[in-house]
Amino acid sequence: xxxxxxxxxxxxxxxxxxxxxxxxxxxxxxxxxxxxxxxxxxxxxxxxxxxxxxxxxxxxxxxxxxxxxxxxxxxxxxxxxxxxxxxxxxxxxxxxxxxxxxxxxxxxxxxxxxxxxxxxxxxxxxxxxxxxxxxxxxxxxxxxxxxxxxxxxxxxxxxxxxxxxxxxxxxxxxxxxxxxxxxxxxxxxxxxxxxxxxxxxxxxxxxxxxxxxxxxxxxxxxxxxxxxxxxxxxxxxxxxxxxxxxxxxxxxxxxxxxxxxxxxxxxxxxxxxxxxxxxxxxxxxxxxxxxxxxxxxxxxxxxxxxxxxxxxxxxxxxxxxxxxxxxxxxxxxxxxxxxxxxxxxxxxxxxxxxxxxxxxxxxxxxxxxxxxxxxxxxxxxxxxxxxxxxxxxxxxxxxxxxxxxxxxxxxxxxxxxxxxxxxxxxxxxxxxxxxxxxxxxxxxxxxxxxxxxxxxxxxxxxxxxxxxxxxxxxxxxxxxxxxxxxxxxxxxx
Length: 493
Known about the structure:
By secondary structure, the protein is α/β, with parallel strands linked by helices.
């Protein structure tokens, strides 16, 4: 099949979060499985040009209709670690992608509406006719709308759309100016509940809702998160729309890149290890302690947290886990950056207060090299998220034999199976510890069970860690599932 991905990110050239990793990882896996994949991306001024090979102008005169005129664009082409990418560069005083940022501008909805329009215009004018157009999140929610309402009458009549929602929290709610800009001029037609009208703000349109209504298939990034989106507040008001379109909605778990995350050859890890020589992992724990100047005590387990410090990640429980670990004579390492000034100040205060403690280290920021060493050296990783569409840290932890302690939400529930209580998996296939409530008591219960197993039954704890390493969380299985979706929608009328 010929697949075109239209997205606002692709790691490592454009990466603001997990979306970039998914777009790159899925594209790579589809190619491994024998499919032709191309990507269409915005040409941001702040993207990592050093990750693009052979960048050249591929289409110089792309004129994109916009309001009552047109904007001239150039399309550049290059390879991002083997993936063929097209970058759209508009020549306009609006400077849509020359802002020194990916997201966060006041006119983000206009910026990405233009990108969606330009991507379709490029496909039409360059005579590219993919079997599947795969779009991601609200930024490209207008692609299936315009494809169905406009571009199918101009040559793009046989393309099918898979639309993946990575985060329901951000939906692209905006006003009618988007319709006028893109040429979707019939306000009365689009301002209806069964099309683009926002479910809670009748005077606004919702770009993500448009993607749901008009796509041939919609998915989110784990089966349990798909259930949550339909039946809980996680759907952020789109629950009724998902219910109407439930026949074309599902969940496909993300994967992780097994070339990047591989304890057998990780360039950032001093001592490589696998299931067959698991004892080598302990040497990385010693190396981590030396680097962070922690006490090297063989009787103390080491617990870590890696990720954003914000409400989604359950920051109040991260803070509690830190002090509970120290109370239980364990060590704690935190690597993360705060998204809000109040949380940032809170953890800088804790870092200063605990600076001389030999059993903890708080690294406030992001450090790729240190992240790999923490995964390789820690005994356990805590992931107490309030909500988690998929989650990557628990999968990476499993890959490195670092036992996850997670809250049972979203993709965490699809990947971590409790050592003591999971009724759907045999003891030989369980791989971590799970709690469900959002209070500190629930977290303590799971952490205590993990610490007790490490302390009182180290052989069983090692067995649990190895069982986690035996799971395949690569892109192989998700890639095959996406191919199944593509085949399904490709052959439907």
